[in-house]
Amino acid sequence: MNDADSRHLSSQLEALGYTHRTSADEADLVVLNTCVVRQQAEDKAINHLHRLRVTKTERPEMTIALMGCMVGMKEAPTLKKRFPFVDVFMPPSDTEPLLDYLSDHGLFDTDRSFDTREKALRDAIQDEEFALPSGLRGQSVTANVPVVLGCSHACTFCIIPYRRGAERSKPPADILREIETLVGQGVKEVMLLGQIVDRYGTDFDDGTDLAGLLQRVAAVPELARVRFLTSHPNWMTDRLLDVVANTEKLCPHIEIPIQAGNDDVLERMRRGYTVDQYRRVMDRIRARMPDAAINTDIIVGFCGETQEQFMDTYRLAEEMQWDKIHLAKYSVRPKTIAARSMPDDVDPDEKERRRKMLDDRQTEILEAKNAVLQGQVVEVLVENNHKGKWRGRTPHNRLVFFEDERDLTGQLVPVHIERTAAYTLNGHAADRRPHAHAGAV
Ligand code: SAH
Protein backbone atom coordinates (compact mmCIF):
# COMPACT_ATOMS: atom_id res chain seq x y z
CA MET A 1 0.00 0.00 0.00
CA ASN A 2 2.74 2.42 0.96
CA ASP A 3 4.72 1.51 -2.11
CA ALA A 4 1.70 2.43 -4.26
CA ASP A 5 1.02 5.62 -2.27
CA SER A 6 4.65 6.70 -2.67
CA ARG A 7 4.50 6.01 -6.40
CA HIS A 8 1.31 8.08 -6.81
CA LEU A 9 2.88 10.96 -4.90
CA SER A 10 6.21 10.79 -6.78
CA SER A 11 4.41 11.02 -10.10
CA GLN A 12 2.36 14.00 -8.97
CA LEU A 13 5.48 15.76 -7.69
CA GLU A 14 7.25 15.13 -10.99
CA ALA A 15 4.32 16.71 -12.79
CA LEU A 16 4.96 19.78 -10.65
CA GLY A 17 8.60 19.90 -11.70
CA TYR A 18 10.26 18.05 -8.85
CA THR A 19 13.01 15.58 -9.67
CA HIS A 20 14.11 12.56 -7.67
CA ARG A 21 17.16 12.67 -5.40
CA THR A 22 18.66 9.56 -3.86
CA SER A 23 19.70 11.31 -0.66
CA ALA A 24 17.58 13.36 1.74
CA ASP A 25 20.63 15.58 2.30
CA GLU A 26 20.31 17.15 -1.13
CA ALA A 27 16.51 17.28 -1.41
CA ASP A 28 14.28 20.37 -1.08
CA LEU A 29 11.42 18.12 -0.09
CA VAL A 30 11.52 14.86 1.85
CA VAL A 31 8.44 12.69 2.32
CA LEU A 32 8.65 9.94 4.91
CA ASN A 33 5.98 7.33 4.26
CA THR A 34 5.39 5.26 7.38
CA CYS A 35 4.10 1.89 8.59
CA VAL A 36 3.09 1.23 12.20
CA VAL A 37 1.65 -2.29 11.96
CA ARG A 38 4.25 -3.40 14.53
CA GLN A 39 6.29 -1.39 17.04
CA GLN A 40 9.47 -2.17 15.08
CA ALA A 41 8.16 -0.40 11.99
CA GLU A 42 7.13 2.61 14.04
CA ASP A 43 10.58 2.74 15.72
CA LYS A 44 12.19 2.76 12.30
CA ALA A 45 10.06 5.71 11.20
CA ILE A 46 10.91 7.60 14.40
CA ASN A 47 14.65 7.02 13.84
CA HIS A 48 14.33 8.44 10.34
CA LEU A 49 12.49 11.44 11.76
CA HIS A 50 15.29 12.13 14.23
CA ARG A 51 17.80 12.09 11.39
CA LEU A 52 15.63 14.45 9.35
CA ARG A 53 15.45 16.84 12.31
CA VAL A 54 19.25 17.21 12.09
CA THR A 55 19.12 17.78 8.31
CA LYS A 56 16.40 20.38 8.77
CA THR A 57 18.48 22.24 11.38
CA GLU A 58 21.22 22.57 8.78
CA ARG A 59 18.82 23.54 5.98
CA PRO A 60 15.71 25.14 7.51
CA GLU A 61 14.29 25.93 4.05
CA MET A 62 13.68 22.27 3.24
CA THR A 63 10.15 20.84 3.48
CA ILE A 64 9.51 17.70 5.50
CA ALA A 65 6.29 15.74 5.07
CA LEU A 66 5.20 12.75 7.13
CA MET A 67 2.82 10.35 5.42
CA GLY A 68 1.07 7.05 6.08
CA CYS A 69 -0.11 5.09 9.06
CA MET A 70 1.92 6.98 11.63
CA VAL A 71 -0.25 9.98 10.74
CA GLY A 72 -3.42 7.96 10.23
CA MET A 73 -6.77 9.73 10.15
CA LYS A 74 -6.33 11.69 13.38
CA GLU A 75 -2.83 11.56 14.82
CA ALA A 76 -1.56 14.76 13.12
CA PRO A 77 -2.18 17.18 16.05
CA THR A 78 -0.32 14.91 18.52
CA LEU A 79 2.53 14.38 16.07
CA LYS A 80 2.82 18.11 15.37
CA LYS A 81 3.62 18.65 19.07
CA ARG A 82 6.10 15.81 19.14
CA PHE A 83 7.83 16.63 15.82
CA PRO A 84 7.37 20.40 15.33
CA PHE A 85 9.93 20.48 12.49
CA VAL A 86 7.60 18.45 10.26
CA ASP A 87 5.78 20.80 7.86
CA VAL A 88 3.00 18.58 6.52
CA PHE A 89 1.10 15.54 7.79
CA MET A 90 -0.62 13.24 5.30
CA PRO A 91 -2.93 10.32 6.05
CA PRO A 92 -2.40 7.07 4.09
CA SER A 93 -3.27 7.28 0.36
CA ASP A 94 -3.95 11.03 0.60
CA THR A 95 -1.54 13.32 -1.22
CA GLU A 96 -3.76 16.40 -0.93
CA PRO A 97 -2.26 17.95 2.23
CA LEU A 98 1.19 18.11 0.64
CA LEU A 99 -0.09 19.37 -2.72
CA ASP A 100 -2.04 22.07 -0.88
CA TYR A 101 1.03 23.00 1.16
CA LEU A 102 3.23 23.29 -1.93
CA SER A 103 0.58 25.33 -3.66
CA ASP A 104 0.03 27.64 -0.66
CA HIS A 105 3.76 28.23 -0.32
CA GLY A 106 4.42 28.62 -4.02
CA LEU A 107 6.83 25.72 -3.87
CA PHE A 108 6.20 24.23 -7.25
CA ASP A 109 5.92 27.17 -9.60
CA THR A 110 7.02 30.53 -8.34
CA ASP A 111 6.05 32.48 -11.47
CA ARG A 112 2.34 32.39 -10.92
CA SER A 113 -0.20 34.02 -8.66
CA PHE A 114 -2.00 31.87 -6.13
CA ASP A 115 -5.16 31.19 -8.16
CA THR A 116 -3.44 30.17 -11.37
CA ARG A 117 -0.97 28.21 -9.31
CA GLU A 118 -3.80 26.19 -7.80
CA LYS A 119 -5.30 25.56 -11.23
CA ALA A 120 -1.93 24.72 -12.79
CA LEU A 121 -1.34 22.22 -10.00
CA ARG A 122 -4.66 20.47 -10.57
CA ASP A 123 -4.13 20.41 -14.35
CA ALA A 124 -0.60 19.13 -14.05
CA ILE A 125 -1.36 16.25 -11.76
CA GLN A 126 -4.65 15.25 -13.29
CA ASP A 127 -3.34 12.57 -15.58
CA GLU A 128 -0.06 11.89 -13.84
CA GLU A 129 -1.22 10.30 -10.64
CA PHE A 130 -1.36 6.85 -12.16
CA ALA A 131 1.84 7.08 -14.16
CA LEU A 132 5.15 5.66 -13.03
CA PRO A 133 7.74 8.18 -11.86
CA SER A 134 10.09 8.72 -14.83
CA GLY A 135 12.97 6.79 -13.26
CA LEU A 136 10.83 3.67 -13.12
CA ARG A 137 9.34 3.80 -16.62
CA GLY A 138 10.45 0.79 -18.60
CA GLN A 139 12.15 -0.45 -15.40
CA SER A 140 9.28 -1.52 -13.15
CA VAL A 141 8.01 -4.88 -14.29
CA THR A 142 5.56 -5.28 -11.40
CA ALA A 143 3.33 -2.73 -9.72
CA ASN A 144 1.04 -2.65 -6.72
CA VAL A 145 -2.44 -1.28 -7.33
CA PRO A 146 -4.68 -0.56 -4.33
CA VAL A 147 -8.30 -1.51 -5.02
CA VAL A 148 -9.72 -1.46 -1.48
CA LEU A 149 -8.58 1.30 0.85
CA GLY A 150 -8.96 1.14 4.65
CA CYS A 151 -10.46 -1.70 6.68
CA SER A 152 -13.58 -2.02 8.82
CA HIS A 153 -12.96 -5.44 10.30
CA ALA A 154 -11.33 -4.53 13.65
CA CYS A 155 -9.34 -7.63 14.57
CA THR A 156 -8.39 -7.04 18.20
CA PHE A 157 -4.61 -6.92 17.52
CA CYS A 158 -4.67 -4.66 14.50
CA ILE A 159 -4.08 -0.92 14.22
CA ILE A 160 -4.84 -0.65 10.50
CA PRO A 161 -8.58 0.20 10.77
CA TYR A 162 -7.69 3.07 13.12
CA ARG A 163 -5.05 4.47 10.83
CA ARG A 164 -6.33 3.74 7.32
CA GLY A 165 -9.96 4.56 8.00
CA ALA A 166 -13.14 2.77 6.94
CA GLU A 167 -13.13 0.31 4.10
CA ARG A 168 -13.87 1.74 0.65
CA SER A 169 -13.47 0.22 -2.81
CA LYS A 170 -12.10 2.17 -5.74
CA PRO A 171 -14.29 2.38 -8.85
CA PRO A 172 -13.37 -0.25 -11.49
CA ALA A 173 -12.90 2.43 -14.15
CA ASP A 174 -10.18 4.17 -12.08
CA ILE A 175 -8.42 0.88 -11.41
CA LEU A 176 -8.44 -0.07 -15.08
CA ARG A 177 -7.21 3.38 -16.09
CA GLU A 178 -4.33 3.07 -13.64
CA ILE A 179 -3.40 -0.41 -14.87
CA GLU A 180 -3.60 0.58 -18.54
CA THR A 181 -1.33 3.54 -17.84
CA LEU A 182 1.15 1.34 -15.99
CA VAL A 183 1.13 -1.28 -18.75
CA GLY A 184 1.78 1.48 -21.30
CA GLN A 185 4.94 2.24 -19.32
CA GLY A 186 6.26 -1.30 -19.31
CA VAL A 187 4.55 -2.97 -16.35
CA LYS A 188 3.79 -6.65 -16.97
CA GLU A 189 2.37 -7.77 -13.66
CA VAL A 190 0.01 -6.08 -11.21
CA MET A 191 -0.85 -6.97 -7.65
CA LEU A 192 -4.30 -5.74 -6.62
CA LEU A 193 -4.24 -4.73 -2.98
CA GLY A 194 -6.74 -4.53 -0.15
CA GLN A 195 -6.71 -5.36 3.56
CA ILE A 196 -9.57 -7.72 2.73
CA VAL A 197 -9.26 -7.67 -1.02
CA ASP A 198 -11.94 -10.33 -1.52
CA ARG A 199 -14.48 -7.87 -0.12
CA TYR A 200 -13.83 -5.64 -3.15
CA GLY A 201 -17.06 -4.04 -4.38
CA THR A 202 -19.27 -5.04 -1.44
CA ASP A 203 -19.77 -1.30 -0.77
CA PHE A 204 -21.09 -0.63 -4.29
CA ASP A 205 -24.32 -2.68 -4.12
CA ASP A 206 -24.32 -3.20 -7.89
CA GLY A 207 -22.84 -6.67 -8.13
CA THR A 208 -19.28 -5.41 -8.62
CA ASP A 209 -16.91 -7.97 -7.09
CA LEU A 210 -13.28 -8.99 -7.11
CA ALA A 211 -13.93 -11.88 -9.52
CA GLY A 212 -15.44 -9.48 -12.08
CA LEU A 213 -12.68 -6.94 -11.56
CA LEU A 214 -10.00 -9.61 -12.02
CA GLN A 215 -11.58 -10.69 -15.30
CA ARG A 216 -11.54 -7.12 -16.58
CA VAL A 217 -7.95 -6.59 -15.47
CA ALA A 218 -6.85 -9.88 -17.04
CA ALA A 219 -8.28 -8.63 -20.35
CA VAL A 220 -5.85 -5.70 -20.48
CA PRO A 221 -3.58 -6.39 -23.49
CA GLU A 222 0.18 -6.69 -22.84
CA LEU A 223 -0.39 -7.41 -19.17
CA ALA A 224 1.11 -10.83 -18.42
CA ARG A 225 0.12 -11.60 -14.86
CA VAL A 226 -2.32 -10.53 -12.16
CA ARG A 227 -2.19 -11.29 -8.42
CA PHE A 228 -4.23 -10.04 -5.48
CA LEU A 229 -3.65 -9.74 -1.73
CA THR A 230 -4.84 -10.13 1.02
CA SER A 231 -7.88 -12.40 1.14
CA HIS A 232 -9.92 -13.08 4.28
CA PRO A 233 -11.22 -16.68 4.50
CA ASN A 234 -14.83 -15.57 5.10
CA TRP A 235 -15.06 -13.73 1.78
CA MET A 236 -13.37 -16.27 -0.49
CA THR A 237 -16.26 -17.17 -2.79
CA ASP A 238 -16.43 -20.12 -5.17
CA ARG A 239 -17.00 -17.64 -7.97
CA LEU A 240 -13.69 -15.93 -7.16
CA LEU A 241 -11.83 -19.25 -7.01
CA ASP A 242 -13.40 -20.42 -10.29
CA VAL A 243 -12.34 -17.22 -12.03
CA VAL A 244 -8.77 -17.53 -10.72
CA ALA A 245 -8.63 -21.21 -11.70
CA ASN A 246 -9.98 -20.58 -15.21
CA THR A 247 -8.28 -17.35 -16.24
CA GLU A 248 -4.81 -17.84 -17.63
CA LYS A 249 -3.29 -14.53 -16.52
CA LEU A 250 -4.53 -14.85 -12.93
CA CYS A 251 -1.69 -16.44 -11.00
CA PRO A 252 -2.41 -19.58 -8.95
CA HIS A 253 -1.30 -17.72 -5.84
CA ILE A 254 -3.58 -16.99 -2.89
CA GLU A 255 -2.65 -15.00 0.22
CA ILE A 256 -5.02 -16.00 2.99
CA PRO A 257 -3.96 -15.22 6.56
CA ILE A 258 -5.01 -17.59 9.33
CA GLN A 259 -3.15 -15.66 12.12
CA ALA A 260 -3.44 -18.56 14.63
CA GLY A 261 -4.18 -22.27 14.54
CA ASN A 262 -6.27 -22.44 17.71
CA ASP A 263 -9.95 -21.56 18.02
CA ASP A 264 -9.67 -19.80 21.39
CA VAL A 265 -6.89 -17.57 20.09
CA LEU A 266 -8.82 -16.88 16.88
CA GLU A 267 -11.83 -15.94 18.99
CA ARG A 268 -9.77 -13.52 21.08
CA MET A 269 -8.37 -12.06 17.85
CA ARG A 270 -11.97 -11.72 16.57
CA ARG A 271 -11.02 -13.11 13.23
CA GLY A 272 -14.52 -14.46 12.60
CA TYR A 273 -13.69 -18.09 11.67
CA THR A 274 -12.55 -21.32 13.28
CA VAL A 275 -9.60 -23.47 12.23
CA ASP A 276 -12.04 -25.93 10.72
CA GLN A 277 -13.74 -23.26 8.64
CA TYR A 278 -10.32 -22.13 7.40
CA ARG A 279 -9.48 -25.75 6.57
CA ARG A 280 -12.60 -25.96 4.39
CA VAL A 281 -11.56 -22.83 2.49
CA MET A 282 -8.17 -24.46 1.83
CA ASP A 283 -10.00 -27.54 0.55
CA ARG A 284 -12.10 -25.38 -1.79
CA ILE A 285 -8.98 -23.71 -3.16
CA ARG A 286 -7.15 -27.01 -3.68
CA ALA A 287 -10.20 -28.69 -5.21
CA ARG A 288 -9.96 -26.20 -8.07
CA MET A 289 -6.21 -25.59 -8.12
CA PRO A 290 -4.40 -28.55 -6.57
CA ASP A 291 -1.04 -26.90 -7.13
CA ALA A 292 -1.91 -23.33 -6.09
CA ALA A 293 0.61 -21.51 -3.94
CA ILE A 294 -1.23 -20.69 -0.73
CA ASN A 295 0.47 -18.24 1.62
CA THR A 296 -0.61 -17.17 5.07
CA ASP A 297 0.13 -14.75 7.91
CA ILE A 298 0.64 -15.94 11.47
CA ILE A 299 1.11 -14.00 14.70
CA VAL A 300 2.81 -15.88 17.54
CA GLY A 301 2.59 -14.89 21.21
CA PHE A 302 -0.76 -13.14 21.04
CA CYS A 303 -2.31 -12.23 24.43
CA GLY A 304 -3.00 -15.36 26.46
CA GLU A 305 -1.52 -17.78 23.88
CA THR A 306 -0.42 -20.87 25.83
CA GLN A 307 2.33 -23.24 24.79
CA GLU A 308 -0.34 -25.80 23.84
CA GLN A 309 -2.25 -23.24 21.75
CA PHE A 310 0.96 -22.30 19.96
CA MET A 311 1.61 -25.99 19.29
CA ASP A 312 -1.79 -26.16 17.57
CA THR A 313 -0.55 -23.48 15.17
CA TYR A 314 2.77 -25.30 14.75
CA ARG A 315 1.04 -28.58 13.94
CA LEU A 316 -1.28 -26.81 11.53
CA ALA A 317 1.72 -25.61 9.48
CA GLU A 318 2.54 -29.28 9.05
CA GLU A 319 -0.97 -30.09 7.94
CA MET A 320 -1.61 -27.09 5.68
CA GLN A 321 1.76 -27.09 3.91
CA TRP A 322 1.52 -23.37 3.19
CA ASP A 323 3.89 -22.11 0.53
CA LYS A 324 4.94 -19.14 2.64
CA ILE A 325 4.16 -18.03 6.17
CA HIS A 326 4.54 -14.31 6.88
CA LEU A 327 5.44 -14.69 10.51
CA ALA A 328 5.26 -12.00 13.22
CA LYS A 329 5.58 -11.78 16.96
CA TYR A 330 2.60 -10.07 18.55
CA SER A 331 3.27 -6.37 19.11
CA VAL A 332 0.90 -4.22 21.19
CA ARG A 333 -0.56 -1.41 19.10
CA PRO A 334 -2.07 1.68 20.72
CA LYS A 335 -5.87 1.97 20.96
CA THR A 336 -6.56 -1.50 19.57
CA ILE A 337 -9.07 -3.68 21.42
CA ALA A 338 -6.26 -5.97 22.58
CA ALA A 339 -4.18 -3.05 23.88
CA ARG A 340 -7.18 -1.81 25.84
CA SER A 341 -8.43 -5.07 27.28
CA MET A 342 -5.93 -7.94 27.05
CA PRO A 343 -2.59 -8.22 28.84
CA ASP A 344 0.45 -8.77 26.59
CA ASP A 345 1.45 -11.71 28.75
CA VAL A 346 3.73 -13.83 26.58
CA ASP A 347 7.35 -13.13 27.50
CA PRO A 348 9.45 -11.59 24.65
CA ASP A 349 11.94 -14.49 24.79
CA GLU A 350 9.10 -16.96 24.56
CA LYS A 351 7.62 -15.08 21.58
CA GLU A 352 11.00 -15.29 19.87
CA ARG A 353 11.29 -19.00 20.70
CA ARG A 354 7.87 -19.68 19.12
CA ARG A 355 8.67 -17.54 16.09
CA LYS A 356 11.97 -19.32 15.51
CA MET A 357 10.50 -22.77 16.03
CA LEU A 358 7.78 -22.15 13.45
CA ASP A 359 10.19 -20.41 11.11
CA ASP A 360 12.64 -23.34 11.23
CA ARG A 361 9.83 -25.76 10.49
CA GLN A 362 8.60 -23.67 7.60
CA THR A 363 12.14 -23.56 6.15
CA GLU A 364 12.23 -27.37 6.18
CA ILE A 365 8.80 -27.57 4.56
CA LEU A 366 9.78 -25.13 1.83
CA GLU A 367 13.11 -26.87 1.20
CA ALA A 368 11.21 -30.09 0.60
CA LYS A 369 8.59 -28.42 -1.58
CA ASN A 370 11.15 -26.62 -3.73
CA ALA A 371 13.40 -29.68 -4.06
CA VAL A 372 10.71 -31.25 -6.24
CA LEU A 373 11.27 -28.47 -8.78
CA GLN A 374 14.85 -29.48 -9.46
CA GLY A 375 15.22 -30.41 -13.13
CA GLN A 376 11.89 -28.85 -14.06
CA VAL A 377 11.21 -25.85 -16.28
CA VAL A 378 9.30 -22.96 -14.76
CA GLU A 379 8.04 -19.76 -16.33
CA VAL A 380 9.78 -16.69 -14.91
CA LEU A 381 8.72 -13.08 -15.33
CA VAL A 382 12.06 -11.28 -15.15
CA GLU A 383 12.02 -8.27 -12.83
CA ASN A 384 15.62 -7.06 -12.77
CA ASN A 385 19.27 -7.95 -12.69
CA HIS A 386 20.73 -8.64 -9.29
CA LYS A 387 24.50 -9.02 -8.94
CA GLY A 388 24.85 -10.34 -12.48
CA LYS A 389 21.90 -12.71 -12.29
CA TRP A 390 18.40 -12.22 -13.62
CA ARG A 391 15.82 -12.23 -10.91
CA GLY A 392 12.13 -12.99 -11.34
CA ARG A 393 9.21 -15.00 -10.11
CA THR A 394 7.18 -17.99 -11.16
CA PRO A 395 3.36 -17.80 -11.39
CA HIS A 396 3.43 -19.37 -7.91
CA ASN A 397 5.51 -16.43 -6.72
CA ARG A 398 8.71 -18.41 -6.19
CA LEU A 399 11.86 -16.36 -6.51
CA VAL A 400 14.20 -17.51 -9.30
CA PHE A 401 17.74 -16.45 -10.19
CA PHE A 402 19.36 -17.39 -13.48
CA GLU A 403 22.18 -16.35 -15.75
CA ASP A 404 21.80 -15.21 -19.33
CA GLU A 405 23.67 -12.81 -21.61
CA ARG A 406 20.56 -11.11 -23.05
CA ASP A 407 18.67 -8.20 -21.44
CA LEU A 408 15.54 -10.00 -20.32
CA THR A 409 13.85 -7.34 -18.18
CA GLY A 410 10.07 -7.70 -18.40
CA GLN A 411 10.19 -10.95 -20.38
CA LEU A 412 8.56 -14.27 -19.65
CA VAL A 413 11.40 -16.76 -19.76
CA PRO A 414 11.29 -20.54 -19.32
CA VAL A 415 13.98 -21.40 -16.79
CA HIS A 416 15.46 -24.81 -16.16
CA ILE A 417 15.89 -25.25 -12.40
CA GLU A 418 19.22 -26.67 -11.29
CA ARG A 419 19.48 -25.85 -7.61
CA THR A 420 16.78 -25.23 -5.04
CA ALA A 421 16.67 -23.85 -1.50
CA ALA A 422 13.84 -22.90 0.85
CA TYR A 423 13.35 -19.41 -0.53
CA THR A 424 15.08 -19.41 -3.92
CA LEU A 425 15.43 -21.42 -7.11
CA ASN A 426 18.50 -21.22 -9.36
CA GLY A 427 18.87 -22.24 -12.98
CA HIS A 428 19.43 -21.15 -16.56
CA ALA A 429 17.15 -20.04 -19.39
CA ALA A 430 15.71 -23.12 -21.06
CA ASP A 431 15.07 -23.17 -24.79
CA ARG A 432 11.67 -24.76 -24.51
CA ARG A 433 8.42 -23.44 -23.08
CA PRO A 434 7.37 -24.84 -19.72
CA HIS A 435 4.44 -27.22 -19.61
CA ALA A 436 1.27 -25.69 -18.23
CA HIS A 437 1.78 -25.52 -14.46
CA ALA A 438 5.22 -27.01 -14.77
CA GLY A 439 6.84 -27.35 -11.41
CA ALA A 440 3.74 -26.38 -9.59
CA VAL A 441 3.92 -27.91 -6.17
N1 SAH B 1 -5.56 -7.36 6.45
C1 SAH B 1 -4.78 -8.53 6.40
C2 SAH B 1 -3.31 -8.28 6.71
C3 SAH B 1 -2.91 -6.93 7.20
S1 SAH B 1 -1.47 -6.55 8.10
C4 SAH B 1 -5.36 -9.55 7.38
O1 SAH B 1 -5.41 -9.30 8.56
O2 SAH B 1 -5.76 -10.61 6.95
C5 SAH B 1 -0.29 -7.70 7.73
C6 SAH B 1 0.01 -8.64 8.83
O3 SAH B 1 0.63 -8.00 9.93
C7 SAH B 1 -1.23 -9.29 9.45
O4 SAH B 1 -1.72 -10.30 8.67
C8 SAH B 1 -0.68 -9.79 10.77
O5 SAH B 1 -0.17 -11.08 10.67
C9 SAH B 1 0.43 -8.79 11.07
N2 SAH B 1 0.03 -7.93 12.19
C10 SAH B 1 -0.99 -7.04 12.24
N3 SAH B 1 -1.06 -6.51 13.48
C11 SAH B 1 -0.07 -7.05 14.21
C12 SAH B 1 0.36 -6.91 15.56
N4 SAH B 1 -0.26 -6.09 16.40
N5 SAH B 1 1.44 -7.62 15.97
C13 SAH B 1 2.07 -8.47 15.12
N6 SAH B 1 1.70 -8.65 13.85
C14 SAH B 1 0.64 -7.95 13.39
What features would you describe in this structure?
- With 441 residues, the protein is an alpha/beta fold.
- It folds into three domains: 2-126, 3-Layer(aba) Sandwich (Rossmann fold), CATH 3.40.50.12160; 134-371, pyruvate-formate lyase- activating enzyme, CATH 3.80.30; 377-429, OB fold (Dihydrolipoamide Acetyltransferase, E2P), CATH 2.40.50.
- Helix content is 37%, strand content 19%.
- The chain has helices at residues 2-15, 39-58, 76-82, 96-104, 114-126, 160-164, 172-184, 210-218, 238-246, 263-269, 275-288, 307-320, 337-341, 348-371, and strands at residues 29-34, 63-68, 88-90, 142-146, 148-149, 168-169, 189-193, 225-229, 253-255, 293-300, 324-329, 377-386, 389-393, 399-403, 412-420, 425-429.
- The strands form five sheets. It has a five-stranded mixed beta barrel with strand order 12-13-14-16-15. A three-stranded parallel beta sheet has the order 1-2-3, with helices on both faces. Strands 4-7-8 form a three-stranded parallel beta sheet, with helices on one face.
- It is globular and about 60 Å long.
Task: From the structure above, extract its key features.
Rossmann fold, 3 domains, 14 helices, single chain, disordered C terminus, pyruvate-formate lyase- activating enzyme, alpha/beta, 441 residues, binds S-adenosyl-L-homocysteine
Write the layout of secondary structure elements.
Elements: H1 2-15, E1 29-34, H2 39-58, E2 63-68, H3 76-82, E3 88-90, H4 96-104, H5 114-126, E4 142-146, E5 148-149, H6 160-164, E6 168-169, H7 172-184, E7 189-193, H8 210-218, E8 225-229, H9 238-246, E9 253-255, H10 263-269, H11 275-288, E10 293-300, H12 307-320, E11 324-329, H13 337-341, H14 348-371, E12 377-386, E13 389-393, E14 399-403, E15 412-420, E16 425-429
Parallel strand pairs: 1-2, 2-3, 4-7, 7-8, 9-10, 10-11, 14-16
Antiparallel strand pairs: 5-6, 12-13, 12-15, 13-14, 15-16
Helix pairs in contact: 1-5, 4-5, 8-9, 12-14
The chain binds S-adenosyl-L-homocysteine.
The site of S-adenosyl-L-homocysteine has 18 residues, from strand 10.
